Amino acid sequence: MLTSRNILITGSSRGLGKELAEHFLRNGDSVFGCSRSDASINHQNYHHYSLNIASADEVVAFFFALRKEIKHLDAVINNAGIASMNAFALTPVESYQQIFDINVQGTFLFCQKSLGLLKRAANPTIINMTSVAVPLQLEGEAIYAASKSAVETLTRIIAKEYGGFGITCNAIGPSPIDTSLIKGVPNDKIANLVNQQSVKKMATPADVINLVDFYLRPESRMISGQVIYLGGIS
After folding, report:
1. pTM of the model
2. Number of H-type helices and E-type strands within the chain
3. Contact by Cβ (8 Å): 159, 168
4. Which band of pLDDT confidence, cut at 50, 70 and 90, is reported for residue 1?
5. Can you give the pLDDT at residue 200?
6. Residue 102: which of 213, 17, 31, 189 has the closest Cα?
7. How many CB atoms neighbour CB 89 within 10 A?
8. Alpha-helical segments (H) within the chain
9. CA distance 211 to 171
């Protein structure tokens, strides 16, 4: 019989984050979700916290409250992220700042502040979300791709620094999924992106969940510092 795990997921109120939360809840795990908005899941094992993940003060306060509720974290999934499609020359500095605040600083803060709780778990894991926009070097996605490149570098170095605590740290780069993250991207751009993949179709939340489950398996404890892109991207 599987033991219930404590799973922390950022961006859990909608899209992929919500799908992940519901998946773990079906498995009998306890999920601790974070987003700016209120909870969109009603379940006895779901615990929601509304905060700005890019705010150091709010993240510190969140983990202070979380340590009063639980003794350890089995997994941290840094799912929250934002994108903005602009030609580089026309990208407002405000867009650059917002994207890096959420995608990079948010990931940095949650990886750092969760260390104490992760160290107490039997098979602790961090999973960060990147994007195929990095290896494909997509036009119009310079700042978004740059932010996810930073996340990949964080992932690899955290894997080295946290390895001594028995914590693995890996990343997933989904191909396009029909969520709010790509709502503003024209259909022809999505079609062109998918056509560059070996597997020429959009991903689904189930595809990502499959890989998340793989990373979380105790048998995957020797896998760390890796980035896997969906769709056959290398």
Report:
1. 0.93
2. 9, 7
3. yes
4. very low
5. 81
6. 17
7. 6
8. 15-26, 56-69, 93-100, 106-113, 115-118, 133-136, 142-162, 187-195, 205-216
9. 10
